[in-house]
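[job 4417] fold queue: 2 targets
>>> target A
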Amino acid sequence: MSTAAFAPRTLADLLPVPTDSSRRVAREVALIGGFAVLTAILAQVKFSLGFTPVPVTGQTLATLLAGTVLGWKRGAASQLAYWVAGIFMPFAWYANDTTGTSISAGWNYAIGTTAGYMIGFVLAAALVGALAERGQDRDLMTSVPAMLAGTAVIYSCGVSWLAFKLDIPVATGETNAIGLGLVPFLLGDAIKLIIAGGGLATRQALTSASRRPQRTSRGIGGTEVESRVSSDNRCEILVAA
């Protein structure tokens, strides 16, 4: 008897994969586009602090979830799609974007003071997604560091670009990029990490629900094919001649 095993790497991999190629493409587009839209929606959940051009939004949460749920390729693609789509949208798409008047206005916003954060969204989704594919989203002790790493990438890019656009020091002086683009958001991002970490329980629940009873069927030439889900959530296919 021979055994073949495979396991879903992310939550998105638990979804059924169509056999038709065009439907598989549509599935990928829906997953990527769905998280781009989610990021845009959470970008509108915002409030301004007054002393900084960077608003408090839910975008970081969307980015962490995109990487965790989709994996590194689709996660990064969803955040890149969010960034690029905002240039062409005829309505508010980015946080604090009230223009929606022209492609030129969208472009100016896309490369504005908060563009560094959007670069960080793409890189962070890729990093968190890669770690999720390696199983670091399945345990609290490894998922939190993974999400912290993703958050660090977002702020590293965001603060650096903010310093460049405003022509201010990164960390020194009375007015600096860390004071405007990092410190005011630490508490909010800690809450987002807790919310994103709650996805661990969801993942485990969905994985458990995806388990099926052991089944045996007869294949070609009388070969018995047995499928089962092991204790580590791997689907095992056993073939007996």
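>>> target B
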Amino acid sequence: MSFLKSFRKVLVILFMISPILPGCGGNEDPPTGFTIGGSITAASGSAIDSDVNDPHASFIDNNNFANAVQLPNPASVGGFVTNSATGNTGDRFASIPDQSDWYQASLTAGQSITLNISDHDGVSTLPNLDLYLYATSDPTTVVSSSVGLTNNVERIDNIATGGTYFIEIRAIQGKSNYVLTIGQALAGAGGAPDDLNIEAEFVPGEVIVTFKDNTMPATFSASTALAMRAESIGMQAVAGRSGIPMLFRLG
């Protein structure tokens, strides 16, 4: 009996001191928080201006065609220009301007170039950035330009002839970050490439479709053939007919 009583006493003592045992052996605090690992990859076609306003970013002057940054196609480029020195301590261009950025790209006929002026409020006239296109064979003659299309967007649509071009973004007044996009022009309901764009109003779930092949099954009525064409791509026909843009609804 004495052995059993002693054993029970030991068990009771161990139970009583067990809550403080984790604290023995050092003064380290228990781990808190968590760690996340992973990687971030830029989308294909992404690029950046080589002389942005961040003084900690790598710097390569691209203020003229001789130093133009080569771009892929399609491409989306983030950059910065300023007509005069910013005057802000810590800016790369605090005491000097960065009036132009030049890029070079191989374009195909029918493509568009869009300049979104990021720091514009969409109402005032500042900052004022313009967009110019030059043939690489003659970088002093403007082939096409956009100078005041809207307050915050400049766009050159329907490149007439495929080839290698210089693209200039020029700060006329003020300063701004920007996004330059090279891509395919979109045809809207009227057939003009600027009828359909991100600034236009739209109805969620609806899309304007133009088929490359405008033929419809001859054995069906126009409305039935249109419905079949829409159903073949998982949509519902709303309006339109063969040979013109058609309104489809998703689902």
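[job 4417] complete. Note on B: Confidence is low (pLDDT under 50) at residues 1-5, 10-21, 185-200.
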